[in-house]
Design brief:
- The chain is of the alpha+beta class.
- The protein is built from eleven helices and 14 strands.
- The two termini are 31 Å apart.
Length: 415
């Protein structure tokens, strides 16, 4: 067995994230993924697509047009070599972060060669997720059957599952709110901050190089989608305070302090140090640590705490070394619970979390969000001149993933 190889992020790109039934609603998920794969390789024109050893693509639903291994379909639709193998990975909201981890492991092990290259990415069209009809235990039932939405959350639940495990995502996070006494006001403040920082990031041009526009053709005309649709720059704590609770009559979680349903795709180019010559560019960051964690399903929002701790331990650093954090904002309450816990462990300043906005504003297309936070983290580290960063994401049914990145401009510098 060869010694473990260091793995690096060389390029990152994503589509704008569209609102549910928004501008990307007419675009099939396999076409959306093919588009972002093309955009990724266009950014490294020296790289021969045939040099990509494997494609790993995350996708949470996989019940509609994204079925039949959407990673393989997208690679073929993009017009790339049929000899390149591809797989689709489902770890729900963490699917594309898992794709990145699996690509990194394959490279580190030497499975793709000392100068190996892989593509990791993810896609989700929550708009186009279908309704499904479960098959009857007996043929030709006399009664009605009910179509089940595959857009989000539990469906076709196994009755053997304990009821406390299968509560809705919102109810699970109301329980988290009770556990940690995180007020509605704090959640709304966090949500308003997400919109404010995301809007500022777009105005500053931060996302210009990271986002590839999508041309959407309709029967009457075609339009170009070039910005995330969910950002509301005028959002304030006062406007959010007027929204009704979404899951409990007296609850704290609303449509304003939770992430929306979204459509989008993202892709990353990863490789070993020796792959730089074939890629034709220097890496952006080193993948220094990666980890998963799990706990009881209804506490999934708090799972990133331990995943990030394990990834930091693998990287050989502590929270006091971290200069930037990207945590996927599934809900404001779970993001705050994680940040509070990390602060107790040495996170030097909560303000280094999601400095360019988060999923509450930008959107959360389940299978693509991991690539967004990785690409954003690498860019923030370089923008701020920080060496170490953490990307973490909570995952339904009680899991989480995290990756530690090291800014290659500062790689090997004194801690």
């Amino acid at each position: 067995m060869s010694d473990s190889l260091d793995t690096y992020l060389y390029a990152a790109v994503r589509t704008p994230f569209g609102k549910f039934n928004g501008s990307l609603a007419s675009v099939r998920p396999d076409d959306l993924a093919a588009h972002v794969l093309q955009a990724l390789l266009e950014r490294v024109p020296q790289l021969d697509p045939a040099a990509v050893g494997e494609v790993y693509l995350g996708n949470a639903n996989g019940a509609g047009e994204d079925n039949r291994n959407v990673g393989r379909m997208a690679w073929l639709l993009a017009g790339y070599p049929v000899e390149t193998p591809a797989t689709s990975i489902n770890r729900l909201c963490g699917s594309s972060l898992d794709a990145t981890i699996q690509a990194s492991r394959a490279l580190a092990s030497g499975d793709l060669g000392a100068d190996g290259i892989a593509v990791a990415g993810g896609v989700e069209s929550m708009t186009r997720a279908p309704w499904v009809l479960p098959k009857s235990d007996r043929p030709f039932p006399a009664g009605d059957v009910t179509a089940v939405s595959t857009t989000l959350g539990w469906r076709l639940v196994n009755p053997k599952m304990p009821a406390e495990w299968t509560v809705s995502l919102g109810e699970a996070n109301e329980q988290l709110q009770e556990r940690f006494s995180i007020s509605r006001e704090r959640q709304d403040e966090f949500a308003a901050r997400s919109h404010r920082l995301a809007a500022a990031a777009w105005e500053d041009g931060f996302y210009d190089a990271m986002v590839t526009p999508v041309k959407v053709a309709t029967r009457k005309a075609s339009t170009v989608v070039d910005r995330d649709e969910g950002i509301r720059p005028d959002t304030t704590v006062d406007t959010l305070a007027g929204l009704r609770p979404a899951f409990r009559p007296d609850g704290t979680i609303t449509a304003g302090n939770a992430s929306p349903l979204s459509d989008g795709a993202g892709a990353l180019l990863v490789g070993t140090a020796a792959a730089a010559g074939r890629i034709g560019t220097d890496p952006l960051a080193r993948i220094a640590g990666r980890a998963a964690s799990a706990l009881e399903p209804q506490s999934f929002g708090f799972a990133p705490v331990e995943a990030a701790n394990r990834a930091l331990a693998q990287a050989g650093i502590s929270w006091s070394d971290v200069g930037a954090v990207e945590v996927n904002e599934a809900f404001a309450v779970q993001s705050l619970a994680c940040v509070d816990a990390w602060s107790q462990l040495g996170l030097r300043d909560p303000e280094i979390v999601n400095t360019r906005g988060g999923a509450i504003a930008l959107g959360h297309p389940l299978g693509a969000s991991g690539t967004r936070i990785i690409g954003t983290l690498a860019a923030v580290l370089r923008e701020r001149g920080e060496r170490w960063g953490v990307a973490a994401i909570c995952i339904g049914v009680g899991q989480a993933l995290a990756i530690v990145l090291e800014n290659t401009d500062l790689e090997g510098a004194a801690a």
